[in-house]
Amino acid sequence: MKRNILLTSRKMIVMSLQSKIRHSKQIILKAKELSNPLPLIINFSGGKDSLILLDLARQVTDNIIPFYTKTDIQFEESFQFAKEICHQIGYELVYSTPEYYKGGFYERLAHLRYFPTIKKRWCSRDLKFRPQKKRLVAMLGKHHFYKLNAVRKYESTRRKQIYNSSKYFRPDYDVHGDIIVLPLLEWTNHDVQTYLETNNIPINPLYKRYSISGCYWCPFYQPCIYERILEYHPNLYDRIIEWEIKLNQPSVIGYVWLRDLKKKICG
To answer: In this predicted model, what pLDDT tens digit does every residue of 95-106 receive, in sequence order?
Structure first.
């Protein structure tokens, strides 16, 4: 009896995921129609969610560009992982660097004199979105681009509050005129894990080590993430620690100093 209940529950989960897969593909198809003849831009970081997004998009259309936004504080292993995944499935990974806009993380930090925060994420704007736009214009000319993002509202409480409505097409407020498309908006963590396992999609090895795979510093990271990273890279944050001292500002959420975390982990 218990086994039957478990099997029924499992079947319902799979059916729910299949429904979400169809819905996500419909959103991508609509974006394709609106973008035509321009390619869809897939914001591809090599993270779990963007792996699924790329897999779904290429099932719908060949007219896509996987795009990686280098920030100069990303893990190089993640960029190489994303590049290799694209190579394996026959795509070139296009990428931008902060130099396309106003310089890298430390140059912007020296100019702005404060660390990015959850409410003031100049790192995303200046290191990712605007450099990406300049790169796309250089490649394809001045157009409004449809950019597929792997944002999921069930990924965190904060995202659930921000994305409290099912709007799958949203204006890009950082790059006016472009449209952000969110095919995975309704997916849960369980949906993601099930899809990856069912389709044998390889996962970025950095997840096992740090539980993240993008930048090594981010205004959203809790102290425990930095502690994990410091165990492997004790000197990685020395330059940020220098800036904490210069600005007399802690750089970690919750008014936590990286220098204290390094002392705790490295002695």
So the answer is: 999 987 888 999
**Residues 88, 55 contacting (CB under 8 angstroms):** no
**16-204 — its CATH code?**
3.40.50.620
Show the tokens assigned to 98. 């902060």
Ranges of each domain in the chain: 16-204, 221-267
Partners of residue 181 on adjacent β-strands: 148, 169
- Point out which residues pair with 171 in neighbouring strands: 179
Q: Which of 35, 85, 88, 84 is nearest to 64 (CA)?
A: 35
What is the tens place of the pLDDT at every residue in 108-160?
A: 999 999 999 998 999 999 999 999 999 999 999 999 999 999 999 887 666 66
**How many Å apart are CA 207 and CA 26, to the nearest integer?**
30
CA atoms within 13 A on the CB side of 42: 31
Distance CA 180, CA 223 (A): 30
Choose among 189, 190, 168, 264: nearest CA to 223: 264
Q: What is the pTM of this model?
A: 0.89
> Any bridge partners for residue 179, and if so which?
146, 171
